[in-house]
Design a protein that fits this description.
By secondary structure, the protein is of the alpha+beta class. A hairpin with a 2-residue loop joins strand 3 and strand 4 (about 60-65). The protein has one domain: Alpha-Beta Plaits. It contains 4 helices and 6 strands. Strands 2-5-1-6 form a 4-stranded antiparallel sheet. A two-stranded antiparallel sheet has the order 3-4. The protein has helices at about 10-15, 20-35, 85-95, 125-140, and strands at about 1-10, 40-45, 55-60, 60-65, 75-85, 110.
Length: about 140
């Protein structure tokens, strides 16, 4: 099972403040532990929302909204993508992670990523073949 773990933003991450050398080293060790265990698929930090944009879809209309965005607690400052056997295993791994915030309480959110098998009959042979082509293209990069 694949899971994405969202690191919630804080006032510091939204201000563009970089993590301390200590937090960078702690995160590096944790990421290496995940990688050596064969669990880590990807992990990155994100720039503040002031450097981003949102696109709002309403039928055929597209509206671009430039950052920064309000409600810091709803924003994402980084992520991990891990592959483990269960939600409980993902929780156990993330309990070992260093707190992602140095200026107060940190928070991560763990969400399972859909796999082709989760779509049942809606994932036709044609869609399955298309998905395999996309994955092959990505793997070739």
């Amino acid at each position: 099972m694949k899971f994405i773990v969202f690191v919630k933003a804080s006032a510091a991450t939204e201000a563009g403040r970089m993590p301390s050398d200590t937090l960078m080293a702690d995160m590096g060790r944790f990421n290496e532990e995940l990688a050596l265990a064969g669990v880590l698929l990807a992990a990155d930090g994100l720039h503040p929302s002031a450097r981003g944009a949102r696109i709002v879809y309403d039928g055929a209309e597209r509206t671009v909204v430039d950052g920064p965005f309000t409600a810091t607690t709803e924003l994402v400052a980084g992520y991990w993508i891990i592959e483990v056997g269960s939600l409980q295993e993902a929780i156990e791994w993330m309990k070992k992670a260093p707190s992602p915030q140095e200026d107060g309480p940190g928070e991560v959110e763990i969400r399972q990523v859909f796999g082709a098998e989760d779509f049942g009959a809606a994932m036709t042979q044609q869609l399955r073949a298309q998905e395999e082509r996309v994955r092959a293209t990505l793997a070739a990069r």
